[in-house]
TrEMBL record:
Pfam families linked: UbiA (PF01040)
Record-level Gene Ontology MF annotations: transferase activity, transferring alkyl or aryl (other than methyl) groups
Protein name: UbiA family prenyltransferase
Keywords per UniProt: Membrane, Transferase, Transmembrane, Transmembrane helix
Lineage of the species this protein comes from: Bacteria, Bacillati, Actinomycetota, Actinomycetes, Pseudonocardiales
Length: 284
């Protein structure tokens, strides 16, 4: 493969592609159903993509030495496919681009999105190694749907359950994402909240938070009178519980990312509900 192409692919793999793509697609879908026109949707997509890219790249840039120490060959910086410096520069470029792209949705909505991205960057910069490690996820995922709704035409006020559901989802994702890395992290001195709770506590926290997120979102969606069939909405937490049980069971194998993937599926279920509720989130 030509060096430019393989370098670009390695850079793409270094951004944490799964959460980056998932978060961007989900927020884009919410922007569509909350009534933005094509340019409005593209602006939201670009703002969220650049924000998530900056968080993902900064994470790999700052973690390079630690990832090398524990032989994380899944990381392109560790395998030498892309340099630490390139990933750092990419993070900075994405963060700078994110500022005007966010503010294009309005000052209030844009500023809240920048706080969400800032929370992710602060996580990378060191909060991930403290007892407060879950807070950036709470802030980031609580604010993302608020950004979309407040940035819609007429700046409608988001209902209370929107940031609450998003924050619960983000907090659950943190515990699930850290699970496969608990042992490696302890070797390199990373002691966030999941490490302090241990594998069992983190597994319970992730499942509890994600299920609570599903219940809050279903209650919100139904109380807002969204055009979602009631049996389908009520089935969501039940399906979420099944997916989590299967994902966490598979995740007992060392290094498995099954719990994180289960979280992604549950997040998809929750966001499908949210997306369907989009039209009522912005009023008649
Ligand atoms: C922080 C935040 C609000 C993120 C938003 C979602 C997002 C884009 C996540 C991808 C990047 C990231 C910080 C992963 C966790 O890193 P890690 O160092 O805990 O784990 P790793 O071993 O997967 O890099």
């Amino acid at each position: 493969m030509r060096p430019v192409v393989s370098g670009a692919l390695a850079l793409a793999r270094s951004c944490h592609p799964e959460p980056t793509v998932a978060v961007t697609l989900l927020v884009t879908a919410l922007a569509i159903t909350t009534g933005r026109d094509l340019s409005g949707v593209l602006i939201v997509t670009a703002a969220v993509l650049t924000g998530q890219l900056s968080i993902g790249w900064l994470n790999d840039h700052l973690d390079a030495a630690r990832d090398r120490a524990v032989g994380r060959t899944d990381k392109p910086v560790v395998s030498g496919a892309v340099s630490e410096r390139t990933v750092g520069v990419a993070a900075a470029v994405a963060a700078v681009a994110c500022v005007p792209l966010s503010l294009a949705s309005g000052w209030l909505a844009g500023s809240l999105h920048l706080v969400a991205v800032g929370a992710g960057l602060v996580y990378d910069l060191g909060v991930k190694s403290t007892r407060w490690s879950v807070l950036p996820y709470v802030v980031c995922f609580g604010l993302l749907p608020v950004f979309v709704v407040l940035g819609a035409p007429g700046s409608p006020a988001p209902p209370w359950w929107l940031p609450v559901g998003g924050a619960l989802l983000g907090a659950g994702a943190h515990f699930a994402n850290v699970l496969p890395d608990l042992d490696d992290d302890l070797v390199t001195g990373v002691r966030g909240l999941p490490h302090r709770l241990g594998a069992g506590g983190s597994r319970l926290a992730a499942a509890g938070l994600l299920l609570t997120a599903s219940v809050v979102l279903v209650a919100g969606v139904l109380s807002a009178g969204a055009a979602v069939p009631v049996p389908l909405a009520l089935a969501a937490p039940v399906v979420a519980a099944g997916v989590l049980a299967a994902g966490f069971a598979a995740g007992r194998r060392p290094g498995s990312r099954a719990p994180f993937r289960a979280v992604m599926v549950v997040a998809l279920i929750d966001v499908a509900l949210l997306v369907a509720a989009g039209p009522v989130l912005v009023g008649p």
